[in-house]
Design a protein that fits this description.
11% strand, two-stranded antiparallel sheet, 120 residues, mainly alpha, globular
Length: 120
């Protein structure tokens, strides 16, 4: 039981660090973070709308944090970060992957979209 709690704890830590990556990226490029929310799908940040390039950078920051954290020499922590990386890059509505694709689409000049109250 204690071991299972430790594995869950590593998963929660990976999730918190993923969101911290989004928050730090947003703050570093001047996008105001309004709050961090917890809902049925997990943690997310609510922030002001930035430019498409800013939105792309903030959306990439969480998954890239998980990618870097996979270098930590702990197999369960690597696995937790790999799973978060895969899940967050999937192009599912309101996921990082979805936002990344929309931003890339907009940067190519092939689409627009309302990015108000972006969750990242």
């Amino acid at each position: 039981m204690l071991e299972l709690c430790g594995v869950w704890g590593l998963g929660v830590l990976a999730m918190v660090m993923h969101e911290a990556g989004h928050v730090l990226a947003a703050l570093a490029i001047g996008v105001k973070v309004k709050r961090v929310d917890l809902h049925w799908r997990g943690l997310c940040i609510v922030r002001e709308t930035g430019t498409t390039a800013q939105n792309l950078a903030v959306s990439l920051a969480g998954p890239m944090t998980n990618l870097v954290l996979m270098l930590v020499p702990s197999t369960p922590f690597r696995l937790a970060n790999l799973l978060l990386l895969i899940v967050n890059l999937a192009p599912v509505r309101n996921s990082d992957g979805d936002r990344i694709l929309r931003c890339l689409w907009q940067l190519r000049g092939q689409g627009t979209g309302n990015m108000d109250q972006v969750r990242g």
